Automatic annotation (TrEMBL):
Record function comment: Catalyzes the cyclization of GTP to (8S)-3',8-cyclo-7,8-dihydroguanosine 5'-triphosphate.
Cofactor info, note text: Binds 2 [4Fe-4S] clusters. Binds 1 [4Fe-4S] cluster coordinated with 3 cysteines and an exchangeable S-adenosyl-L-methionine and 1 [4Fe-4S] cluster coordinated with 3 cysteines and the GTP-derived substrate.
Annotated keywords: 4Fe-4S, GTP-binding, Iron, Iron-sulfur, Lyase, Metal-binding, Molybdenum cofactor biosynthesis, Nucleotide-binding, S-adenosyl-L-methionine
Originating organism: Aquirufa novilacunae
Protein name, entry field: GTP 3',8-cyclase
Catalytic activity: GTP + AH2 + S-adenosyl-L-methionine = (8S)-3',8-cyclo-7,8-dihydroguanosine 5'-triphosphate + 5'-deoxyadenosine + L-methionine + A + H(+)
Length: 330
């Protein structure tokens, strides 16, 4: 069988895999999970490193050009660097990583040797007290120091900040100001309902419009960049700034029309959209002994039934959203 290219039923090319390697995390962010955490899956019920490599290789043969390693927190699962080494053997595959920044400082040299240059760092506040309240952990200084080390080492860093009413509105300005002297992209994200509680807001105070208005009020020279196919953030340059800012309408879902992503959870669920409830158990299918060709046919079938956008995907769910972001990989 030749290597068929992955397109969905709406004609969108799929070139980006978001791969969650664990559902475990060392933080307890309020927008992601309850204070007591969630019931983590035993490792035997997660995809093995070998299974994840096989699936990534197959999808790479079908047109995936970029893989982002997510979690949970990727560095809490033993064997991550060996897995990244295997991924680096796949020709012309861009490897990116999302982390909360607590442990990444121990691996900067290894990541550089493997060619991992793009790091997304989740950081919702530059104030230690607010950071502690949001993450329920006192790790701010370690994360901030590692952020500076990443920048100094030449990594291309994006700071992801979820904007929450009554928790970190002040940081819209302080994080934007951080981009004045540092070559980073600060991306403000609408809060999503994946907090593990089953409670979903029908409306959102800090939507993408209000976030952008707050930035413009302090930095009126904001200049929009072109919105590229497959992007989620509307990004902006600021005169005299080394970095830039962006806003991701993750709750409003204004960017679905050019979505080029495949999501694979740590337990092997394929998600054709962030807002669906998992459309196929790829782990069980894989462990049934199927061939590479059969896996490719199954992937083509799954994405030939893809919702047009996140609203359609949510409407087709069975029940309300109850999962934690750490279980689906962001």
């Amino acid at each position: 069988m030749d290597n068929p290219q992955l397109f969905d039923n709406h004609g969108r090319e799929l070139s980006y895999l978001r791969l969650a390697v664990t559902d475990r995390c060392n933080l307890r962010c309020t927008y992601c999970m309850p204070a007591e955490g969630i019931n983590y899956m035993p490792e035997r019920e997660l995809l093995s490193w070998g299974e994840m490599f096989r699936l990534t290789r197959i999808m790479h043969e079908m047109g995936i050009k970029k893989v982002r390693i997510t979690g949970g927190e990727p560095f809490v699962r033993n064997g991550l660097l060996d897995f990244l080494t295997d991924l680096a053997s796949l020709k012309d595959l861009e490897i990116c990583l999302t982390t909360n920044g607590v442990f990444v400082g121990d691996y900067l040299e290894s990541l550089q040797k493997l060619g991992v240059r793009h790091i997304n760092l989740s950081l919702d506040s530059l104030d230690r007290d607010r950071f502690n309240q949001i993450t329920r952990r006192d790790d701010f200084q370690k994360v901030y120091d590692n952020l500076l080390r990443l920048i100094q080492a030449g990594f291309q860093v994006k700071i992801n900040a979820v904007v929450m009413q009554g928790k970190n509105e002040e940081d819209i300005i302080t994080l934007t100001e951080f981009a004045r002297e540092h070559p980073v992209s600060v991306r403000f994200i609408e809060e999503m309902p994946f907090n593990g509680s089953g409670l979903v807001e029908e409306t959102l105070f800090w939507d993408h419009i209000r976030i952008l208005d707050r930035i413009k009020s302090a930095f009126p020279g904001l200049q929009a960049r072109p919105f590229l196919y497959g992007e989620t953030a509307h990004t902006y340059d600021l005169p005299g700034f080394k970095g830039n800012v962006g806003v991701i309408a993750a709750f409003s879902r204004t960017f679905c029309g050019t979505c080029n992503r495949i999501r694979l959870t740590a337990k092997g669920q394929v998600k054709t959209c962030l807002y669906d409830d998992g459309v196929f158990d790829l782990k069980a299918y894989l462990r049934s002994g199927v061939s590479d060709e059969e896996l490719k046919k199954q992937l083509l079938t799954l994405f030939n039934k893809r919702p047009l956008d996140g609203f359609e995907a949510e409407n087709k769910r069975i029940g309300v959203i109850t999962e934690s972001m750490t279980t689906i990989g962001g």
